[in-house]
Write a structure and sequence with these properties.
- It is built from 15 helices and 13 strands.
- The protein has helices at 4-7, 13-24, 40-52, 64-78, 84-87, 93-105, 122-128, 147-153, 176-188, 228-231, 246-259, 265-277, 279-302, 329-339, 368-387, and strands at 27-28, 88-91, 111-116, 132-137, 158-164, 192-196, 222-227, 240-243, 306-307, 315-319, 342-343, 345-346, 359-363.
- The strands form three sheets. The chain has a seven-stranded mixed β-sheet with strand order 2-8-7-6-5-3-4, sandwiched between helices. A four-stranded antiparallel β-sheet has the order 9-10-13-12. Strands 1-11 form a two-stranded parallel ribbon.
- The radius of gyration is 21 Å and the shape is globular.
- The longest helix is centred in the last third of the chain and has 24 residues, at 279-302.
- It is an alpha/beta fold.
- Bound molecules: 4'-deoxy-4'-aminopyridoxal-5'-phosphate and glutamine.
- Glutamine binds next to loops.
Length: 388
């Protein structure tokens, strides 16, 4: 029943876990945000823009300087040929970009292929727009899809597919052959791809992020979504990028104008500056995060925990049964935050059907001492779970 879509939802797992961490004074390896305050020059630019810049409504689709910087960034980083004037819209975070896309493009009855684990915002927004999600289930340790899975999910009624790559919570970067396969299905079924690529800059260990938009036949049928929050480790800023061919962009802007209309101009100015001057940050940031990921993984392994491979995002996944934890992920996550003082994300929260209940997501974008202390607390939670 349409009325119940939002009223029947629980509070999102990210807020639930951060709320418990705040209330209990626990270490928070749940919701994904870094301890690092973010690039100082970009924050200084924002402060200057608040004090000395323009603080009234900016243009609805975003400041030209930011739209130009976005197009130039993706030309350099991903070889895309976006026209800033007709193909780039600035939104209040990737979340608003997703909402504008779903509310702007989906018509009642459209089928939308969605991969599980699914980022929490997708399904309620797709349903509110009148879409019917067709769920496809990815599972650890590799979280990959194949031709048979796509054959089962796509039909003549499919109008959209939503792809999150690099994948949150899996932490994996999809290989080009998987993207080529998905592109083949999009073209064959005349489907528009909604690509949530907010983690595109947070990729390590030689992995390369490739935008689905660049695959054959996809340029005109892809909506690409990015987030300055993830690019610059400033998750509270909520400056998003919405990119698509001109006709799609016109519709997306129509939806955006009635969701938020616009995005704080001072933050837009600072993000434009960040994109123009950020080459060093884009090299250093993934290296720093990779070091944190390796530090957490090594100390977890020393404690006898088993971690899954990953090549991106802020997240490392624990295989609970292989780590000697018999409890399901949610029960263990609640125990860990309440009894041992460390918050995490149970990955089952990001499934709607047949959840994977064996994986715990940990955010490693934290100071060394936080990571070290968290491992001791997770070991304590495991002890307590064995004692019960
Ligand atoms: N999509 C994914 C996959 C995310 O992980 C996040 C935030 N972590 C978002 C969208 C939302 O991004 P924003 O904060 O820019 O709204
Ligand atoms: N995307 C963040 C995460 O995965 C959370 C964002 C949110 O809380 N809405 O942790």
């Amino acid at each position: 029943m349409a009325d119940a879509i939002f009223s029947s939802l629980p509070t999102t797992i990210f807020e639930e876990m951060s709320g418990l961490a705040r209330e209990l004074g626990a270490l928070n390896l749940g919701q994904g945000f870094p301890d690092d305050p973010g690039p100082e020059a970009i924050r200084a630019k924002a402060a200057d823009a608040v004090l000395n810049g323009y603080n009234q409504y900016p243009p609805m689709v975003g400041l030209p300087e930011l739209r130009q910087a976005v197009a130039a960034h993706y030309a350099g980083a991903q070889g895309l040929d976006l026209d800033w004037a007709s193909e780039v819209t600035i939104t209040s975070g990737a979340t608003e970009a997703l909402a504008a896309t779903f509310l702007g493009l989906i018509e009642p009855g459209d089928e939308v292929v969605v991969f599980q684990p699914v980022y929490d915002a997708y399904l309620p927004l797709i349903r509110r727009a009148g879409g019917t999600p067709k769920l496809l289930r990815l599972s650890p340790p590799h979280w990959r899809f194949d031709r048979a899975m796509l054959e089962a999910a796509f039909s003549d009624r499919t109008r959209f597919v939503v792809l999150n790559n690099p994948i949150n919570p899996a932490g994996v970067v999809l290989p080009p052959e998987d993207l080529a396969l998905l592109a083949e299905f999009c073209v064959r079924h005349d489907v528009t791809a909604v690509c949530d690529e907010v983690w595109e800059q947070v990729v390590f260990g030689g992995a390369v992020h490739r935008p689905l938009m660049a695959f054959p036949g996809m340029r005109g049928r892809t909506v690409k979504i990015g987030s300055a929050g993830k690019m610059f480790g400033l998750t509270g800023w909520k400056v998003g990028f919405l990119m698509a061919a001109p006709e799609l962009s016109r519709t997306l802007a129509r939806a955006h104008q009635f969701l938020t209309f616009t995005t704080p101009p001072n933050l837009q100015t600072a993000v434009a500056f960040g994109l123009e001057t950020g080459a060093d940050w884009f090299t250093a940031m993934p290296r720093t995060l990779e070091r944190s990921r390796d530090r957490l993984a090594e100390s977890l392994r020393r404690e006898g925990f088993v971690v899954l491979p990953g090549q991106g995002t802020y997240f490392l996944n624990l295989d609970l049964p292989a780590s000697g934890v018999e409890e399901a992920d949610r029960a263990f996550a609640l125990r860990a935050v309440r009894e041992a003082g460390v918050a995490s994300i149970p990955v089952s929260a990001l499934y709607e059907e047949t959840p994977v209940t064996t994986i715990l997501r940990l955010c490693f974008a934290k100071r060394d001492e936080v990571l070290d202390a968290a491992v001791g607390r997770l070991a304590k939670a495991r002890e307590l779970s064995r004692a019960d």
